[in-house]
């Protein structure tokens, strides 16, 4: 969200070195914010300026970005898309320097990105603190009910063998387990450092894989790792009968989906359009979007978004 997210989702530090490392791990080259970072699309509209819509490098973020872009385009806004840029550490500089205007985000990890000392965990408290923590050039619009949190996930066999229903239950055995996830999860405040501080859980080693993607799922199901960071709306969790461990100490804060946008581009038309989307998004619906994208037909994020907008009367 969190995934890291991201998201999470995901959650969070901003260093140029980390950005470069993340981009390399994602297989990218050159400037991810150049036109090669995603598909470009222009559509005439009533906005005085083009809105550049970006996304992180995982399917849920790409689908949400497509939903935003298509809905705004239908309302006459000029849109350019730069999707699958990378992790938050990679795309956030673009939002801060104005080369990206709009991206789907998650409240908890975004708050921790801007305030590493944030302690809020409940949805309303996180949202309020986030609004206060943002730079002057950025704003968030209304948060949706939809929530996609980072999760510590194990196989059913591991959960049964270790009698683990929660991360706290796993803690006594963490030293025997290899953990896998996105490179940035190893250093984010609510990632490996947070799990260690909150639960006294220090894993034997860490494998840098992908952000809730096929590499992580394959490594977990194949036994190369014994615990993983996956997003809680990931369709692969049910497909593989994985177990999302409970987080009784709220290491992972609330992670409601919402638009993060350049304040100068947030016209009344844009805000009304994006807020209407947030009003329709639910956690169940988000899980279904991921399942649809992961289905046998493997539709594109663009097609999944178009279908969702039509079903919800927003197209």
Keywords, separated by commas or semicolons:
315 residues, alpha/beta, D-Maltodextrin-Binding Protein, domain 2, 13 helices, disordered N terminus
What does this protein look like?
The protein has 315 residues and is an alpha/beta fold. It has two domains: 16-148 and 255-311, 3-Layer(aba) Sandwich (D-Maltodextrin-Binding Protein, domain 2), CATH 3.40.190.10; 150-244, Osmoprotection protein (prox), domain 2 (D-Maltodextrin-Binding Protein, domain 2, 3-Layer(aba) Sandwich). Helix content is 39%, strand content 15%. The protein has 13 helices and ten strands. It has helices spanning 16-25, 59-74, 88-97, 107-114, 123-133, 156-161, 167-170, 192-199, 214-222, 235-239, 268-280, 283-293, 301-311; strands at residues 51-56, 79-86, 102-106, 138-140, 150-154, 178-181, 205-208, 227-231, 243-244, 257-262. The strands form three sheets. Strands 7-6-8-5-9 form a five-stranded mixed beta sheet. Strand 6 (178-181), helix 8 (192-199) and strand 7 form a beta-alpha-beta unit. Helix 2 (59-74) packs across helix 11 (268-280). The longest helix is centred in the N-terminal third of the chain and has 16 residues, at 59-74. The radius of gyration is 18 Å and the shape is globular. The two termini are 26 Å apart.
